[in-house]
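Recall the central idea of this unit: under ordinary conditions, the amino acid sequence of a chain determines the structure it adopts. In this exercise we apply that idea directly, starting from the sequence alone.
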Amino acid sequence: MCDALIERFEDWPGTDGRGLPGTAVSPPGEVQALTLALATEVAHTFGTDVSHVKATIVRYDVGDRFARHRDMEPHWPFSYGRTVSFSLLLSDEFDGGDMIVDGHDMALRRGDLAGFNANTWHEIRPVTDGQRYVLVVFGHWLSDAELERLNATGLNGF
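Accordingly, the structure predicted from this sequence is:
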């Protein structure tokens, strides 16, 4: 599955390959269903729930990083209703790119999943060699009406 998701990313029209929000690729529908099931399990671990997920595939090239942040910030309208986040590492042919969650190095290998509350501080350290691919999933708890309103704003994205 990891290779198939990486291939989907690389074949997507207009993908510039940057590991930054806004250039990510949505996985196929069957993966969306799997991500909802996984997000539900992660959410239950933290005593919460999810009703919807947003999943995306991101590639980090040499020098790419993601500064320390939380996935649910009041000043980020698109993070409304986020309860949990998780990352599934799709590749292992890179150096650097460590995922640090709440000050702890997750030491992820291909196929590993790191899940956490959306309010948890985390970061991706710079990739020093190769390319780091990851499936990133955000679990949201929204009523259908809230989801409809958020979709109407155009802000319900990565």
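The longest helix spans residues 29-45.
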